[in-house]
Structure formats: C-alpha cells, structure tokens
Amino acid sequence: MIKRTLKQISDMIPVENEITSFADIEITGVSIDSRKIESGNLFIPFKGENSDGHKYVEDSLKKGASAALWQSDVPNPPTHLPILIVDNCLGALQELAREYRKQLQVKVVGITGSNGKTTTKDMTASLLSTAYKVQKTEGNYNNHIGLPLTVLGLDEDTDIAVLEMGMSGRGEIEFLTKLASPDAVVITNIGESHLLDLGSREGIAEAKLEILQGLKDGGLAVLHGDEPLLMERINKYKGNVRVQTFGRSDTNNFFPIDIIQLEQGNMFKIKESDENFELPVLGTHNILNAIAAIIIAHYFDVPFNKMNEGLANVKLTNMRMELVEGFHGEKIINDAYNASPTSMMAAIELVSNLKGYKKIILVLGDMLELGPQEEQYHQQIGEGLNPEKIDYVFTYGKLAEHIAEGARSALGKNRVFSFMEKSELIKVLEQHVNNDSLVLVKASRGMRLEEIVTALQKK
Length: 459
Description:
Elements: E1 3-5, H1 6-12, E2 26-28, E3 30-31, E4 42-43, H2 57-63, E5 67-71, E6 83-86, H3 89-103, E7 107-112, H4 117-128, E8 134-136, H5 146-152, E9 160-164, H6 172-180, E10 184-187, H7 195-198, H8 201-208, E11 220-224, H9 228-234, E12 242-246, E13 256-262, E14 265-270, E15 277-279, H10 284-299, H11 307-312, E16 322-325, E17 331-335, H12 341-353, E18 359-365, H13 374-383, E19 392-396, H14 400-411, E20 416-419, H15 422-429, E21 437-442, H16 450-457
Parallel strand pairs: 3-4, 4-5, 5-6, 7-9, 7-10, 8-9, 10-11, 11-12, 17-21, 18-19, 18-21, 19-20
Antiparallel strand pairs: 1-2, 13-14, 14-15, 16-17
Helix pairs in contact: 3-5, 4-10, 13-14
C-alpha cells in the first residue's frame, strides 16, 4: 500500500495549507472509515448530505492515523494537527491514486462487462498468481471511490493488479480506466444491466467500450466476440489496440471444445493447447469467463500447463454460483449477488442440464434497473422455462410476479408460487425440498435472497 511522507503527498496533490512542521510524517495506506483506522493511515473524510467525516478527524488521529485530509469549505480546520487542506476530499483521493499509479511499475488488467466481471476478475487473478505477485479488487470496490482505494492499496512490489470497473452511467468507465491506465482490458459481455440509465444495449456497449480510452498504446483488448454490438464498434476503433476475442463460436480467437460437465464444474479444451482445463465452477457461461482469463494469463506469458493450478485455486467472491447444502439435504446454488435477464437465463440453463437431481426448483427475485421494458423481461424469463426440466418456480418481489405469470403459461399454475414476504416463501419452499432437490436462488442484490439460502441451511 502507499507509503509516502506528507511532503511527498503534497507533491502528488494540490495542498492549500503550510505543512512544513509535518512534512516528514509518513502515512501508510488510506482509510475513509474512522471505525477501521489502522496505524499510520491517511484518513480521508467525506462530506455528505447526512453526515460529515470531518467530525471524526481528530478521533481518527487519536486512534493511530498519521494524518488526515480536510476539505477547504469545512470551517475550523485543526491546523495544529497533521492535516492537508484540499479543495475536495474525493477529488484528492482520486488524484492521489492517479499519481501513485504513475509511480508504480505494476502492470494493470482492467475488467468490465454487464455480467461476469467479478468472476472473470477472480479467475484472472488466480491464473496470474501462478507466476506473479498479484493484487485484485476486493468485494465491490469497483467505482469512483473503490477503485482509487484499491490502487492506493497496491504494494510497490506487486507485479500485476487486476481491477474491476463498474458503472451506472456514461463517462464512469472512462474515468476509471484513465485513472488506472491498464495494459490489458476485458469486456466480458453486453447484457441488460443499466438499461434504466443508458436506454439501450447499444448505449451499454458504448459505455463499456470506454475502457479502451485508458488502455496503453498497443495494449490488449479481450472482447466477447459473439456480441455484434462489441465487434461492430471495435472494427471501427481508430486506436492502436491488439484485439483477441472469446466466445462459443469457432469464429473467435479462443473458444471451448470438448466440454465435459463435472459434478461441481466443467472440463474443456481450447484449440491452442492440449491441456484439459478443469474449472471447479458451475455453468457453461463461466467457461467463457475462464477463457477470457486464460487469454490474459497467456498474454503475460503464463504457460498453459500451469493454468490448471490457477483454476484449481480460484476463490470466487461470495454468492456467485456457490453450491451449498440445506438442512434437508437439498443442494442450493446461491447466485444471489446480482441478476439480469442474460445471467438469469444462463443460471437456469445450468440447473436445467445438471444430472442427478429428481427435483429442480427455481427461487427467483426482481431484476432491477432494466428500464421501461422491465415487466416484459421478467415475463419472458418465465415463459422460456422448460416444463420437462423445471419442477417448481418460487418468485419474490413485485417485478418477479411477472416471472410467475410467464411461468404459469409454461408449467401450469400448480407448480408456480409467488410471494411478497420472504418468510411465507421460505415456509412453503421448505415443504418441497428434500435430499433429491436442487434449488437455484437468484435475483438482483437489492432483493437480498441470500436470506432464503441461510434459512434453508438452518434447522
């Protein structure tokens, strides 16, 4: 993590006060949460509508912070303490991260996409870790605050940083990629997330392709080649970029062959290698995420014959295709972190084709931020269910009622249950599960369907 004196910090960001008496104080790492201060931290207070972190500056210094920022429009700065007065604390955080990135020798991989970016980030970091010291975005630190904090948390001897870049509107990926200055980037796919903000899948594609604007000259762009919206635009791109594509189609540079479904994952090959890649993660769509990670690892000279070591050690962020067991012996796929029509259909396809279960149950909640056609997207999920492969559907939430409506046309009304209360859903669901059941739980993060998974695991 960043280790600099206050004099060095003042050379990296504009500082408005005289700091001569504090110039030699060294900070180690940064924190924006006064409750999580570690010794030596630079505390960065944010001024919001309902709270003001400046109230905790003195307390943070007492807890062990070496120094703090102070926003110039906040009155009564404690100038007797080691503070740096800046025009805007958030802007200073971002500028400090940008300058620190410039001082590091680290290579950076930037990853974005409508679905799969976190899984691809985890896989990429694991593959690269077989040959390099790697750090990656932790949790959901992928926005205009989280990414700068991740950059400032990089060690000076880290070889490669794998950074996830999220967005909700235009311009956000451009800002993040120009801060991170990646050597290689991945766009996992173009789905329907953020239709509410961007209006169309074309708008989403253009927003995701902003990641190229920070890519170093001659850098690698790894794109989902089965997505026409990406390929149409990359073919017209004027920048100096090397493009590699992945997907299911053999028109891509990299595509899977000889896929074998395993009990808790998949085995596959690619034509560039004789290796049988064994991926301990469920879902055909995750094979494509793994191939994107393989392309990046190959670009950084990780040999194919070392990649299984990396795949075997993949640790996915929680609630992404987690296979757990319920109290009654039922198997539960906890994929409750997020959902869009594309990712929900992929998860349903997965459970529809898994062998060894006598009863397949879907527990589906609202998919959020889909814009004016949100009801139609939900209904299409239900209408597309295969009655020969899906036994029961449980829905939770107002929008998910439209999934139930579509599912009744496909499965019949006796196999579909719709709820607005989780407690009622859990009570009925528990009557239908046993040790021959597989339960998929999926919805947007705001629906908190992991609470249903937890309830099924309890006695």
